[in-house]
Amino acid sequence: MPRHGIELTSVSKTYQTSKGDIEAIREVDLTVPEKGFTALIGPSGCGKSTLLKLIGDLEEPTGGTVRVDGKTPREVRRSGALGVAFQDAALLPWRDVRANIALTLQASGRKVVRSRIDELIALVGLTGFERAKPAQLSGGMRQRAALARALATDPELLLLDEPFGALDELLRMTMVLELQRIWLDRPHTTVLVTHSIQEAVMLSDSVVVMAPHPGRVHATVPVPFTRPRPEELTRSAEFHQLCDQISLHLAEASGHDAAARPKAAIGRAS
Fold first, then answer.
1. Alpha-carbon distance 224 to 199, whole Å?
2. CA 110, 112, 115, 116 torsion: positive or negative?
């Protein structure tokens, strides 16, 4: 067992329902190195979000082990070393940006330092909007605030579940570039769940393609591009080739005829 990073060993999860047991994931092995960035991609129902919940102590496995820096997910969460951002920014509407970001510090019993909050606001590009309520912010600005809130405790582990899924394509690319900038400034061990091939390739060190029924790892594709990765990279032949490779794995994982599949759509959810 490595001392650092995320290690999933033969992890399974079965849900008990009134209609019988549902096997969500089966014997998944996954390693994310310390300060590494891994993207999970796959068809609906392949267990991507379930894996994220297991890593973040929102669910418990029915088999196997999950460790983060050698600790259980519960130990990581209780220590305040976990940051989470979802597709829904879930900001409290009666709190302004500064107060929403401070929420995770208050919930973990930590002291709220105004200069630290202002530093995070600057990091995510919201300087000047400290007193704004969520209703006064655009979708992208709300996601920036949610990301700052996830980073407030300076977590060892950052879990992102479709954080830009509700945004239009132009804004989504802007936020992808912003997340890359923020991550380069303060690298955290990060797992991203996404349906976008482009998003996965732009952000991660490796893309894990999952297959459904039950969820399992179908392929792991290393991303060879150095950082920072500019938007122009998405128009290169190398980028298209890698996206097509991942698209092929997705077709195989979904049980589709790979020969008949369309080319990977760059900038569109797979």
1. 15
2. positive
Per-residue pLDDT, 3: 53
Report d(CA 100, CA 148) in Å as an integer. Answer: 9
Check: CB of residue 11 under 8 Å from CB of residue 65: yes
Measured from the Cβ of residue 90, the count of other Cβ atoms closer than 10 Å reads: 13
CA separation for the pair 252, 240 (Å, rounded) = 18
Contact at 8 Å (CB) between 257 and 183?
Answer: no
How far apart are the C-alpha atoms of 219 and 236, rounded to whole Å?
Answer: 23
- Cβ-contact 48, 215 below 8 angstroms: yes
C-alpha 154, offset from chain centre: 16
What is the CA angle 125-128-132, rounded to 5? 100
pLDDT in tens, 220-254: 999 999 999 999 999 999 999 999 999 999 999 88
- Look up residue 15 and give its two tokens: 């849900």
For 200-209, b/e burial (b = at least 16 CB within 10 A) is bbbbbbbbbb
Q: Give the start-end residues of each E strand in 168-266.
A: 189-193, 206-211, 216-222
Amino acid at site 231: E
**pLDDT category, 256, cuts 50, 70, 90?**
low
Q: Which H or E run includes 187?
A: none
| Helix (H/G/I), strand (E/B), else coil: 190 | strand
pLDDT in tens, 87-96: 777 889 999 9
